[in-house]
Amino acid sequence: MNQLSNVSIIALVCLSVVAIAFAVMTALRFSRRRAVAMDRATMVAAREAFHRQREHLEARFLTLADASGKPRGLRWVNCDFRDEISYARDCDDGTLTALVGVTISFEAIEGGGMEEVEAVSNLRAATAVFQYDHGQWTTQGRAIMNLEPLEAIQHFRGKLALIAE
Question: How far is CA 19 from CA 10, 29, 141, in A?
């Protein structure tokens, strides 16, 4: 009788472990689905916010980019923003990033060593970078030179992941 009760206890413990594992797996699956749904809702809200704030964000980008002193010896004269926006996630921390193609024109700063360079007046293609942080779009005025948005995402694969429309 003692052996039978030991077997029953072992069977009961095993069954309990299986039931707990099943409950944990189900809860994880549910929370992942909920996180994806919340992520989609956040994405929709972020896109709408970007469109509402776009004019302000573009002006802020140009101000900060010009103040950065990059490229050295050049002043940012104009920055034409394209309509299309590519969205990506930072692979490390999940930060949402908006990338917008731009065409930039520069002029040489007097005494900056670039006055004699003919190429200064050439228009430059680049990608303007914006981040969605704590429900707000921001920019540091960072431009990824010589790359269109999708090229920038490809170039930084492993760091950025494209979010499909």
Answer: 14, 15, 53
